[in-house]
Amino acid sequence: MRNFLIIAPALLILPFLRLWSWFTGSILFEYNIVDRRIRWSKIYSAVLAKIKNQTQQVVHVNSNGNEIKLEFFIPSAVCKMRADTFSSKEPEILKWIDQSGGGVFWDIGANIGLYSIYYAKNYKQPVIAFEPSVFNTSELVRNLNINCVADAVQVVPNPLTSKTAMETFRLSSYEEGGAENAFGVTFGDDGTDHKTELTYDLLGFSAFELIKNGYLKQYPNLVKIDVDGIEHLILEGMEDILKSEACESVFIEVNDHFLDQSLTVAKILTRCGFRRTEKTHSNIMSKSNTDNEIWFKSEIL
Questions:
Q1: Residues 86-97, mean pLDDT to the nearest whole number
Q2: What distance lies between CA 95 and its chain's CA centroid?
Q3: Which residues, other chains included, contact 232 with Cβ-Cβ below 8 Å and sequence gap of 6+?
């Protein structure tokens, strides 16, 4: 709350600072428009830097009763929300990490790095964070460094899908921490038309292509997939990985109203030897049509 009270007035005061810059420039006889613009640019940059560099500490008590301290940059309202609700928005994923972690973790749809950082702080094992949004990747990297886990987490700024190809990446927002993006398709998380704000072309990969060509060296033990729509296409591109002995559990977001997605997810994971053990969402997400599903290899149960 303290950080928000700093950011909001800063945004409101910018127009007044511009007027003040013009007024002081007039007093100092700075009639040259270039000098006035330089003065205003310095003021604006200083205020913007203050906003962009605000951070918020999060203290989470894990399943073992231990406090885990994290810190996140909050340059936007969405990032602030993600910090505020770290423990309550999707507690099932934190519990899954607490109870199942210990091997290589793939965080597909890492956003600003909440769960990659949490995993890296709990386990001394490699983390691969997949996040293609240019607005989120910058915050992901800053958050990795402020939490001192940059050496433990490798960042892949390319999307995963069913095949390796150059496709259009559709973003729903310009805001840092935003979600509901779409790669290579025109639908969103519910299978209906994607609400697109901006686009750019991007090279996407199938996960197995990255392993087969040696770009990623280790198979994952745990896989988390939350990309708001193409979860089933990502699974199609990593069946050989899912069938490997190394891969033990998958945490995946599924929308039952999007039948092509939900049925394909169940079919692929079942074919690869997994069984669903949990399907849930938090109270905060009670109005959402999506659920978080947890799948384990049958022989592990």
A1: 95
A2: 18
A3: 260, 261, 264, 265, 268
- Yes or no: say if 179 and 288 are a contact pair by the CB < 8 Å rule: no
Q: Which of 53, 63, 111, 60 is nearest to 84 (CA)?
A: 60
Where do the structural domains in the chain lie, given as residue ranges? 2-52, 86-300
Query: To which residue do tokens 């910090």 refer?
Result: 83
Beta strands 274-280 and 105-108 are unpaired
Please state, in angstroms and rounded to a whole number, the distance separating the CA atoms of residues 18 and 202: 38
**Topology of the domain covering 86-300:** Rossmann fold (3.40.50)
> Using CA atoms, how far apart are residues 243 and 107, in angstroms rounded to an integer?
18
Predicted TM-score (pTM) of this structure = 0.86
Q: Indicate the residue type of 279.
A: K
Which of 17-21, 107-111, 122-126 holds the top average pLDDT? Answer: 107-111
